[in-house]
Write a structure and sequence with these properties.
Beta-Lactamase, alpha+beta, 13 helices, 5-stranded antiparallel beta sheet, disordered C terminus, 434 Repressor (Amino-terminal Domain)
């Protein structure tokens, strides 16, 4: 472990990130360059004290899990992630582990979209990154672990996750989620992660098992969704999905479908962040 080099690298990367890149409002009284240590700690799910000790070269060796969380919080590129692991004295994660982090190019596009809600998803429906506007529309989807990382799993096993979708649209949303997962499973035939997720869903949700047996296949490209936002009311959004060449990740961009939604979204952006019901899903 190269403590001094690791400390310097983490400080530099923290100072280089604009708060808006990670969904944090950049207020006029802000004096810190980049992110504050407590903001990195919150984004990475660790204590502020540990972040301080890492940046001062006084910490114990961070685990691969902590490094992965830091890489996600600091929006590191693939090369920077590899460098981070080497500095900490660990072998970098294999390709499938890195693929579960949003690609740097998609993160840059997310930042450039500004007040246009957008998020990066894996092909299995794990939210890898969101901009601030997306969090305001549908809630913060970071911090989930295990199978709860996947939108489809929460949708079919946690009824409260459907709260932001109108009741009359839920059957169609269920069918589309299953058809999209079926397409991913076909591309990743033999992948134990996919097989395990499907098996868990079949065991825990009769609705999923019924729809899975119908063998419908459809990759999401364009859709129109209504979000029942608890602060400003229904938001009818056009959802355009842009996929990477290997179909491993996708950027979903949400734009207002009508004038009323545009007005409500503008109001929501002014109002700022408020706590959302636990488990609310964006898909």
């Amino acid at each position: 472990m190269q403590r001094d080099q690791l400390a310097g690298f983490l400080r530099r990367r923290r100072e280089a990130i604009r708060p808006a890149e990670v969904g944090i409002a950049d207020g006029p009284r802000r004096r810190t360059a980049g992110l504050r240590r407590e903001e990195v700690a919150r984004l990475a799910g660790m204590s502020v004290d540990y972040v301080v000790r890492l940046e001062q070269g006084r910490s114990s060796q961070p685990s691969p899990q902590l490094l992965t969380a830091l890489a996600r919080a600091l929006r590191l590129t693939d090369d920077e992630r590899v460098h981070l692991f080497h500095l900490a004295g660990h072998q970098p994660p294999p390709t499938d582990g890195i693929a579960r982090m949003a690609r740097s190019g998609l993160l840059h596009m997310l930042y450039l979209l500004g007040d246009t809600p957008a998020l990066v998803l894996s092909d299995l429906g794990e939210v890898l990154a969101q901009n601030r506007a997306s969090m305001l529309v549908s809630g913060d989807h970071s911090g989930f672990t295990g199978d709860r990382r996947y939108l489809a799993y929460r949708w079919f096993t946690e009824p409260e996750s459907q709260a932001m979708c109108p009741a009359e649209n839920r059957a169609d949303r269920s069918r589309k989620l299953v058809a999209d997962l079926r397409a991913a499973a076909g591309r990743r035939a033999g992948d134990p992660e996919v097989a395990r997720l499907v098996a868990r869903l079949q065991a825990e949700s009769a609705d999923f098992a019924r729809l899975w047996a119908e063998h419908e296949v459809a990759v999401r490209r364009f859709d129109e969704k209504t979000f029942l936002n608890p602060r400003v009311g229904p938001l009818v959004m056009e959802c355009e999905t842009l996929v990477t060449p290997d179909l491993g990740q996708e950027l979903v961009v949400l734009t207002p479908a009508d004038a009323r939604t545009r007005e409500r979204l503008e109001l929501l952006l002014v109002l700022g962040t408020e706590e959302f019901p636990a488990g609310v899903t964006a898909e």
